[in-house]
Amino acid sequence: MPLGLADARQRLAYINQYRELVLGVLFILLLSSRVLGRHLPDIALVLFGVWFLLACGFVQIGVRASSERRLYWTAGLYFLAELALITAIADCLPAGFHWLALLFYVVTILHANMVLPRRLALLLAALAAAGFAFLVGVGAGLLQPPVAIVAMVALVIVGVLVFVIAGLSMAQFSRMLRRQTEALQAVNHRLQATTEELRMHRDHLEDLVRERTVDLEHATQDLRGINADLRRLNELKSSFLANVSHELRTPLTSIRSFSELLLHYPDEDPATRAEFLSIISNESDRLMRLIDEVLDLAKIEAGHLQLHPQPVALPELVHETSELFQILAMQQGLELRYALPDDLPRVWADPDRLRQVFTNLLSNAFKFTAAGRIEITAALQKGEMLITVADTGAGFPPGDAERIFDKFHQRGEAVAGKPVGAGLGLAICREICQHHGGRIWAAPRPGGGSLFHFTLPLAHVRAAATVAGA
Prior knowledge:
- The structure is a single chain.
- The protein is of the alpha+beta class.
- The chain has helices spanning 17-36, 41-65, 69-89, 96-112, 118-138, 145-167, 170-264, 270-302, 314-332, 351-367, 425-435, 459-469, and strands at 4-6, 12-15, 310-312, 335-338, 347-349, 373-381, 384-391, 440-444, 450-457.
- It folds into three domains: 4-168; 179-283, Signal transduction histidine kinase, dimerisation/phosphotransfer (DHp) domain (Helix Hairpins), CATH 1.10.287.130; 307-469, Histidine kinase-like ATPase, C-terminal domain (Heat Shock Protein 90), CATH 3.30.565.
- Strands 4-6-7-9-8 form a five-stranded mixed beta sheet. A two-stranded antiparallel ribbon has the order 1-2.
- The protein is elongated and about 155 Å long.
């Protein structure tokens, strides 16, 4: 059976008190076996051997495992008490001393387990020895075997009770149990801390995986969008090439045809010749505008668009540009209006590029307006100039408000007899406005038509910012 528990320093922290109970019962059985020894001597011999091994093993373990004086002293008392019993059982002492040896052993156990103080233990041992000696002396030879057997059985019961009460130190066991419980609680606390740390790592990993999954989904969506844009741009480029080919071929065909007519029919009347020359001039201008748009787009794509900004009087520039379209407005039966106050502050812009924006917006308005009017307005708004070009034409779906500024985008069916164009004018307008630090956007006009707005910085604001930055 286990003899006890040792601590980290190899000291005996707890002795199995049940072993003392077994030893005590074996002692009593050894004494009682003397009565039965006449008939069963082998039983006495076996019990003696078991007891001797347990007793010697306890003394050796106690002496080796502990460095405390009390355990040394207790082991010595055990050894002396057990030696007395061995001597008594071996008939080395008179019969009356058998009981004295047993009493001495019981008192030794009580004292060793701190049930009895040393003085009280010695006093009880002396009184018990004297009393038992007197009883043995008075009753010598008077006890019969049946009475002796009953006495032995009673002694076994008393011995068991004594060893149960004296051998089990509940306080010591409670302390041991409390230490073990505290150790288990400490281990449990460490396990809980480790479990919590693992749970936090697991949650962190789950969050990390979730974030990576979301990022991957977003990246996948972005790639899908980019792929869709690339496909759309590819389609637009194909359409652009087709439109450019058509736009280049149409004016060239007209120029060539009317030039050949003039060469082959030099005698045509002056009015017809003037009409042919006018057509050739218009188609040449159309061809030149298309070439300029393609060149401007190439500069923008290459990042070579250069601006030469300066203070610009907006009413004068709008008047000059609008006058170029007055003849076209009269031919189409449209009203071109512009009413800009003369006291408007100057804007900070490149005059040529700003004139190009107005030209593209007005050309676009004339292209999609069959009847009504085209109007240009300007006003101050939040420290910048807001310019609007409005028309009463076909308009566009609200969902196309952003797409119409994409390169190669075709807005829709133009007015009969008007060229479709290459879809570059509005894209160039957006790039020019952004390079000026402004923006451009479109919206459907209430009642029908389109509204094109763009903003430009004010000259005095930009000058003040330049001085402050210097």
